Amino acid sequence: QVQLVESGGGMVKAGGPLRLFCAASGLTFSTYAMSWYRQAPGKEREMVATVTSGGSTNYEESVKGRFTISRDNAKNTVYLQMNSLKFEDTAVFYCHGRRAALEGINIYWGQGTQVTVTS
Known about the structure:
Elements: E1 3-7, E2 10-13, E3 18-25, E4 33-39, E5 46-51, E6 57-59, E7 67-72, E8 77-82, E9 91-101, E10 104-109, E11 113-118
Parallel strand pairs: 2-11
Antiparallel strand pairs: 1-3, 3-8, 4-5, 4-9, 5-6, 7-8, 9-10, 9-11
C-alpha cells in the first residue's frame, strides 16, 4: 500500500521559514517525480514545486527564489523548504508522486498539511 505522509505544517509569521516533509512508503521512491501542490481556500489546487527522479527541479513562478524542493532517496523523503513566507502562501500543501512507465501512469497524493501565515 502506497502512502505519502506530510508533516511540518503549522502557523508561521510572515517573512518566516517553514520546512515541510513528505515520507513515502510502498513505492520505488527513486523512480518517481515528486511534487508539492497547494490549495488555498476558494482556489484550485496548483503545483508549487517538482523534483524529478533525476533531480531536476521546477517551481511555480510566485515561489521562485523563496522555496526549495529536495529529495533524499535513501530516506524516501521529499522536502519543501519555504522561506520569506507571505500571507498568500496560506494553503493546504499536498505531496504528490508520479511515475510514467510502460504499464501506465501511477499517481499518489498525501492527505495534506495546513500552512498558515500570520501577521
